[in-house]
From TrEMBL:
InterPro entries: E_motif, PPR_At4g14850-like_plant, PPR_rpt, TPR-like_helical_dom_sf. It comes from Buddleja alternifolia. This is Pentatricopeptide repeat-containing protein. SUPFAM superfamilies: TPR-like. Keywords: Repeat. The keyword Repeat applies.
Length: 420
């Protein structure tokens, strides 16, 4: 931190000397200063430098938009994007990337469509951002179209673009297409291997994930922290507890990688899914002090979730107290309340919800999205702002009637046959 502060102060001195000599009005010097201040997240100073430039060029606008995107200020990024007198591919790419980096995936896709209408030809970086948006939204059809567009433009599928395609297809559940792209890549780095391993894991194919890991070792690529997070997750989703613990030993003994928060969280989840809650609790109790309370809370939350899933209310109460002391988050209260309700202790469940409300802790509303005819629709729990909400509720009413009818039929059949 001291070194970073000294670097920052050195740059401020350079800025001061440049200002005295009248050099900051130059595009090259000004742009370098904007990049420097953006690197230190000081966008106030970056904007002051930008305003001092006599005639900002497209690079000036690009680095400014990138800076705002980096600190998460998408509003000011878009404001400056709209004000840019000339928009080249770099400016479009900076704004699209800013949206995607800040989880505004739908907005990123919409801006990509506007870019196409403007006649700008996308480059590899823009395609990587758009594929990331498609993967996170589950927009398979748009993702396939983007892939075909890449082929039409005859853009070479390098490591970054290939990894983005693998990630998109994996997140959309198309493992065969993801593996096809993966196998066709002439070069693969550790990120690419991790992405394919993770793809198998989140889609419930733990055996393929582990098999691919051993192929990765044979290819000479050294695994990193993320590799083992993906492997532990894969083993967890596929009920492969013993294989997961074996990989933990390989991580520690063979590659000398010290377990971090994410590793502990995955191992706790792995043991919990195998109903080894006591073993998971023992690991948490022996866990060294992690970097921050938020990191430690992640592990305790995983253990609390396990306790609640398997009716260990006694242990859940202790874990919840620890978690509440670490963070002000609704998750601990909701999980504990659900655990009480699951074992019929409804008074305690209601009391927990009341305590949560009295302390001003609000539950984060759920969010979901669906792709229909190439258009992504997003919904937040409790919202009524969608333009076709009346039609949606009408269809939900029909679905509910069918579901109620099905429930009645099942109850009747069980009553007649005695089969539960």
């Amino acid at each position: 931190m001291l070194y970073e502060f000294e670097k920052f102060e050195s740059w401020r001195l350079i800025h001061g000397h440049g200002f005295k000599l009248g050099l900051v009005y130059d595009n090259f010097v000004g742009n370098s200063l904007i990049v420097m201040y953006s690197g230190f997240d000081d966008m106030g100073a970056a904007k002051c430098v930008f305003d001092e430039i006599f005639r900002p060029c497209v690079v000036s606008w690009t680095v400014l938009i990138c800076g705002y995107g980096k600190i998460g200020d998408i509003y000011l990024a878009r404001l400056n994007f709209d004000e840019a007198p000339v928009k080249d591919r770099g400016i479009w790419g900076a704004m699209i990337s800013g949206y995607v980096q800040n989880n505004c995936f739908k907005e990123g896709l919409e801006l990509f469509r506007l870019m196409q209408l403007s006649g700008i030809r996308p480059d590899e970086g823009i395609f990587v951002s758009i594929l990331c948006a498609c993967g996170n939204l589950g927009s398979l059809e748009i993702g396939k179209w983007v892939h075909k567009y890449v082929e039409k433009l005859e853009i070479r599928v390098g490591v970054k673009l290939g990894t983005a395609l693998v990630d998109m297809y994996s997140k959309c559940g198309c493992l065969d297409l993801a593996k096809e792209v993966f196998d066709g890549m002439p070069q693969r780095d550790v990120i690419c291997w991790n992405t394919m391993i993770s793809g198998y894991g989140v889609n419930g194919d733990g055996e393929s994930a582990v098999r691919l890991f051993y192929e990765m070792e044979k290819s000479g690529v050294r695994p990193d922290n993320v590799t083992f997070v993906s492997l532990f997750t894969a083993c967890s989703y596929s009920d492969m507890a013993q294989e997961g613990l074996k990989l933990l030993c390989i991580m520690c003994d063979v590659y000398n990688i010290e377990p971090k928060t994410e590793h502990y969280g995955c191992i706790i989840d792995l043991l919990s899914r195998a109903r080894l809650v006591e073993e998971a609790n023992a690991i948490v109790q022996r866990m060294p002090i992690l970097g921050s309370t938020s990191e430690e809370a992640i592990v305790w939350r995983a253990l609390l979730s396990a306790c609640c899933s398997y009716g260990r209310v006694d242990l859940a109460e202790t874990v919840a107290e620890k978690l509440v002391a670490l963070e002000r988050h609704s998750g601990a209260y909701v999980l504990l309340s659900n655990a009480y309700a699951a074992v019929g202790r409804h008074d305690e469940a209601r009391k927990t919800r009341k305590v949560m409300k009295s302390r001003g802790v609000e539950k984060t509303p759920g969010c979901s999205s669906v792709e229909i005819d190439g258009v992504v629709h997003e919904f937040i729990a409790g919202e009524t702002s969608h333009l076709r909400m009346d039609e949606i509720y009408e269809v939900l009413g029909v679905v509910k009637k069918h579901f109620d009818s099905l429930q009645f039929d099942l109850s009747f059949i069980r009553a007649q046959t005695g089969v539960t």
